[in-house]
Amino acid sequence: MKYLYVVRHAKSDWSMSGQADFDRGLNGRGKNNAAMMAKIMKEKLGSVDLIVSSPAIRAISTAKYFAKEFSIPIDRILMKQEIYEASCPTLLKIIETLPERAHKVLLFGHNPGFSQLAGYLTGDQVDLPTCAIAGVKFECENWHAVSKGSGTLIYFDYPRRHMTE
To answer: What are the domain boundaries of the chain?
Structure first.
């Protein structure tokens, strides 16, 4: 079995006008949410085999919070340039080439591609707000067997579910 956890980056910082989209980091809420969701995932999963991220600052920054929580060295995060602004077909190609030894993978990136990907893989309507996580289970042993509707949505969580008024 394979498990893919699609994680949209946490809330980004728009305070610097004129800053390139790729270079935007996380704002204060984003940092807090990334740390909180990383702890929640660590409690749920215990461990992960691989973290893959877009190299955009807000995505890799979010991934680093999870890597820290899972005691994965930052330099072991696999960065894939093609995740940035990726369409669903591009993301599927990335998944199909994941190492077979990795059974639980965290994939960090951006909308709209990530919401589309989660929906494509599960057949469910999935809308990922910032720092949301969609967990998809596949009844297969090889990542190249992942295809449209081949996954089951087994987990969906996002920061606002944990906020108290």
So the answer is: 2-10+23-162
Structure tokens at 130: 């910032």
Instruction: Report the distance separating Cα 36 and Cα 31, nearest Å.
Output: 9
Residue 135 has pLDDT above 80, yes or no: yes
The residue type at 17: S
What angle do the packed helices 88-96 and 113-122 form, to 10 degrees? 70
Q: How many helices (H) and strands (E) does the chain have?
A: 4, 6
Nearest to 102 by CA among 134, 146, 150, 43: 146
Q: Tell me, what's the pLDDT at 75?
A: 95
Q: Which fold has domain 2-10+23-162?
A: Rossmann fold (3.40.50)
CA distance 109 to 84: 7
At 164 the pLDDT is 66
Residue 165 in this model has a pLDDT that exceeds 80: no
Paired sense of beta strands 50-53 and 78-79, if any = parallel
CA triple 29-52-79, angle to 5 deg: 95
